[in-house]
Structure formats: structure tokens, C-alpha cells
Sequence to fold (194 residues):
Amino acid sequence: MQTTKRPTFANFKKKALQNEEVRKEYNALKPLFAIKKQLVAARIAKGLTQDEIAKKIGTSKSNISRLESLNNTYMPNLATLMKYAEALGMRLDIGLR
Amino acid sequence: MQTTKRPTFANFKKKALQNEEVRKEYNALKPLFAIKKQLVAARIAKGLTQDEIAKKIGTSKSNISRLESLNNTYMPNLATLMKYAEALGMRLDIGLR
DNA sequence: ACAAAGGTTATCAAATATGATAACATATCC
DNA sequence: GGATATGTTATCATATTTGATAACCTTTGT
Fold:
């Protein structure tokens, strides 16, 4: 007995639509993910832990984990990002293109 | 009768201290002011009004005025900045240096 | 095996940013 | 002068982010 569903055009279109929405959503969030990845990369490059960053900023490592995580889409404000950058001994660079 | 106060070292130090704090504060807010100035410049360059940006985003011109203003230090979150950038037909570029 | 280090997730309180609205000010146009 | 366009400021409600804490998980070191 075959239990495998046969692909149909409707299925294909639905999947394509979902992919399009997913892509659109992902594109919309690119700046967020970009800065998160940069923060994590810089922290690791400098051999710092989340806890050390947290201490420099005056917060908790769990809050740093939340900030760094790609598993949520909280939108950090500039103060938060600026503080993290400063804790890295760096500056936040923000512009338009 | 002389009514002019004579400068003293204490006065000088106090003024220098204030300037130092002001400068420090200003430096800390540089990224904020930088992106504000860029948003305004881009909007004007594209010949758009605050109201037009507001309509594209789905907010009010007064909120755009507040966002653009150098007279306050509200720290916009990334979503807000991303929306403005998109209304300009541009992308927000954020990184570390 | 156990402890410590490093990180993740959830929850709720507190703080802050944005939404919504109105009044006001200035500049421009007819 | 009056109407319109553009921008500013204030106020309060609402939404969102951050603060604070705890429990949990994984990795590392001894």
C-alpha cells in the first residue's frame, strides 16, 4: 500500500508560496541577523564569553544570549547594540545603502 | 563698579569638566545622530516629505519628526529603522568597526 | 564522576519605544 | 488674508524591549 503522497501542482505552488514568504521574511530580517552574527563573531574573535560581555555592560549572560540568538526576532534598540559594541571595544556603524 | 566675575581655576575646571561630560555624552550618541542625519538627508535627496514616509510606513508624520529629531535621545529599535530605510527604497546597513 | 564554565530558554517585572492624537509654528501659495 | 503644506512638540495609551531571575543543557577540565 502506497502511503507516499503524490506531488501535485497545487502542492508545488503552496510550497513555492511558502518559500517566497519565508524568503521575503528572511530578507526583511537581514539587518537583524547580520548584526547578530557580527557581534558573535567579534566576541569569539576577541576570546570573550557572553558572561564577560554581560559584566562589561552590566547585565546578565542570559540577556546576552537572547540578544545574540538567531532563534528570536526581538528588535534590539540602538542603545543595546551600542553598549555591546562598546563592550567589544568597538563602535557601531550604521548607515543606508 | 566692576560686575564682571574674575575667572578662577575652580571655574575653569568646572567648565572643562562639563565640556568633557558633554563631549563624552555626545560621542556615546554618535551612531544615533549619524543614522538620523542620514535618514533626513536621504529623504530630502529623494524629495519626500515626512508625511510621505509616514504613509509608506503606516504611521504619522509626527512620529517621523520625533524619529528624525536631534532634540531627543529616544533609541529607535531596528524594526523602526528598517521600516524607514525601506520607505526610502534603501536598506539599513549595520555593522561593527 | 563531578564540578565548573559557557550557553539556552522561559517567565514576569520594569523600562522604554512606538502608536495615536491634538495643538502649535513656520513657510508657501493664491 | 486665508488656506494649505510641512514640520514640531506634547500627551497619554499601547506595544515592545530590557532587566532580573531561575532552571536547564552542553562542554570542558580534573
